[in-house]
């Protein structure tokens, strides 16, 4: 299945929409922050990441992969992931996806 130029443009516009980034961040954050503390601790992150890998049909992440992910997302090194830190991850993902789609489209 190939996308039309119009469909590709609509998708790229969605990736640029701050509301989409906010909604995606909120959805992911509330799904992982089980104790509703406003921060995702290592235990919650580990559980959420394992669930994501399972739902995507992948292998369970290794401890090294989990620690590396936390290290990259946790920019203030407090061993917890804030909503702001997660939002940066979502935004960076959207930016990367946009570049991939634009590269395929050129």
Description:
This protein is 71% helix and 6% strand. The protein is built from five helices and two strands. It has helices at residues 5-16, 18-32, 42-55, 63-73, 83-105, and strands at residues 39-41, 80-82.
Shape: globular
Q: Give the strand content.
A: 5-15%
* Unreliable runs: none
What is the number of strand segments? 2
Summary, kept brief:
With 106 residues, the protein is mostly helical.
Features:
single chain, 106 residues, 6% strand, mainly alpha, 2 strands, two-stranded antiparallel ribbon, 5 helices
Question: Can you lay out the helices and strands and say which pair or pack?
Answer:
Elements: H1 5-16, H2 18-32, E1 39-41, H3 42-55, H4 63-73, E2 80-82, H5 83-105
Antiparallel strand pairs: 1-2
Helix pairs in contact: 1-5, 2-5
């Amino acid at each position: 299945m190939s996308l039309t130029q119009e469909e590709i443009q609509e998708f790229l516009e969605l990736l640029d929409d701050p509301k989409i980034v906010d909604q995606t961040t909120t959805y992911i954050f509330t799904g992982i922050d089980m104790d509703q503390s406003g921060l995702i601790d290592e235990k919650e992150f580990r559980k959420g990441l394992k669930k994501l890998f399972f739902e995507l049909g992948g292998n369970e992440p290794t401890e090294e992969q989990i620690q590396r992910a936390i290290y990259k997302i946790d920019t203030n090194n407090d061993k917890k992931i804030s909503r702001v830190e997660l939002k940066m991850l979502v935004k960076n993902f959207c930016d990367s996806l946009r570049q991939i789609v634009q590269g395929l489209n050129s």
